[in-house]
Amino acid sequence: MSISAKTTALIVLMGVLLSLSAFVVQRSIVYPAFHEIEVDYARNNIDRVVRKLDTQRQAIDFTVYDWSAWNDTYSFIQSGDPEYIESNLYPDTFLNFGFDVALFLNLDGEVVWGSVYDFPSDGGIVDLTAAHLDDVVAATAKFTGRIDPEEDIDDQATSGVVQVAGIPVLFAMRPIVQSDGSGPHKGYVVFGQFLDDELITTLSEQIVQDFSIEPVPENTAPAAPDNYSLKIIDQSTLSASKIYSIEGIPTLRATAILPRNITELGRDITYYGIALLILLCIALATALLALFRWIVVKPIMSLRTDISSISSAMDYSLRASIKNNDEIGALSREFNSMLQMIESNNTELLRLNDELTSKHQTVLEVQSDLQAANAELKRLSEHDPLTGLSNRLALEKKLEQAWGILCRTGDPLTVMLVDIDLFKLYNDRYGHQAGDRTLKQVADILANAMKRKSDMAARYGGEEFLLVLPGTNAEDALSIAASIREQVIAANIEHDCSAIEPFLTISIGISSVVPHAGLTTGDLVRAADKALYTVKGSGRNNFRYEPVDTTGQ
Ligand SMILES: Nc1nc2c(ncn2[C@@H]2O[C@H](COP(=O)(O)OP(=O)(O)OP(=O)(O)O)[C@@H](O)[C@H]2O)c(=O)[nH]1
Description:
The protein has two domains: 3-262, Beta-Lactamase (2-Layer Sandwich), CATH 3.30.450; 392-545, Reverse transcriptase/Diguanylate cyclase domain (Alpha-Beta Plaits), CATH 3.30.70.270. 54% of the residues lie in helices and 18% in strands. It has 13 helices and 15 strands. Strands 3-2-1-6-5-4 form a six-stranded antiparallel beta sheet. It is rod-shaped, with a radius of gyration of 77 Å. Residues 419, 421-425, 427, 432, 435-436, 439, 462-463, 536, 540 line the site of guanosine-5'-triphosphate. One of its GO terms (molecular function) is diguanylate cyclase activity. It comes from Marinobacter subterrani.
């Protein structure tokens, strides 16, 4: 796996791990934080709803306060004078003060005067007094017990919610006292509002928050300050509920349906954040890879190309290029140092090789000289120094060698003993040195007469020569002997004290045999010697053939 591939895998792995980490952090920290904000937001909103309901209750209570601490009301509750009602409590008064129920109760909780209206949104007035007055009186009269006349005038109040014809009525009640707040109180004033859909819609518009209400039984556990009920409806909405208590008594449950904008925002931020992070990782990985290729891979590939060129050319005088002053540059310098060392070693090796070659040449020359000397020694050991012909030692070897070969081939072996006639007289007449030159002259004639490579002319001793002719039969030998004799005569070497001719002559004894067991070279030479002896005895200057004596076998 290449460095690039490994680095790519590492960066991708890091990117994936980073994205996963970011995702986990987003899901476990950021997203819950948004959820917490949303919960706070929901609580604030449902708190606003409850506060709005309480504000509504307070508004009714303020109105009740005005009407209950008023001398006219104080007189009315005692006298029941209809003038008070006609002057003050016509339907528009209800509409202006924003309540639907008005009750004036005596100290026994019995209604002195009361009316119940409904004000639909089309501007009409529906008088519900006949239908619901008794219900309202029955529901509210029992609250008179909550009012303590001994309390300060400001605290002599109660309020609550009662159900009339299935509709909750928010009411406030105060005792009727004189305008200066003095008593004793003579009855109770009750004003109330239908918490119907129309009013709830109006309140919702005022606080810009839709909500609904439902009555709760009185024995419902009092709501703790943070007793909220939050319920996730679906991905985009949740419901927040809170019990609205009046004087510590649970009365209504207000519920608001809220959009989960914040959670959605958190989720979107999480997803967009992760997507952005992944894009950043990809961009960063791409940039890192490009940078890595530029800083690391490219110089390494360049160094590799240099190394490849140098090793294929085997030219260690070349150097890798150093492009950066970093670790790869240091590697290139180390490589160049190694090349320098190899080059130095090569130079030294070449010098040593030259020296070795020179010594080898010397050895070869010495060897050649030795071979020449050996050859010369061999030649000297096998040749006669005066005539240049083979000596007696070489002759013996030749005879034995030829005898062995011809024993197997069945061809004849011929020898000739050549002796210069009356050579003593020649020496005496012309001197020993002249005798030497003549010996050499005759030897040359004999050597030239040896036509085959296997023939040999040897100095047998003194002025006597032995010619060895393997494969030559007697007939051919006689012809050769005649030719040699004539050549010596033709040489016309003066020998004026010879009794034969006035020039030098020779005598030749010839013998030939097919070598075989029972005979030796000695037998053959002896036969030739016998022939020579016969020639010498019969006047010299001639040649003769003598067969080998095989009678002694
Ligand atoms: N100059 C010279 N003479 C040699 C050499 N070797 C032998 N001689 C002489 O050759 C002569 C041989 O003489 P002999 O054996 O008596 O025979 P010859 O005089 O040739 O008589 P025949 O052989 O019977 O014809 C001797 O005088 C030797 O000194 C040599 O190397 N150089």
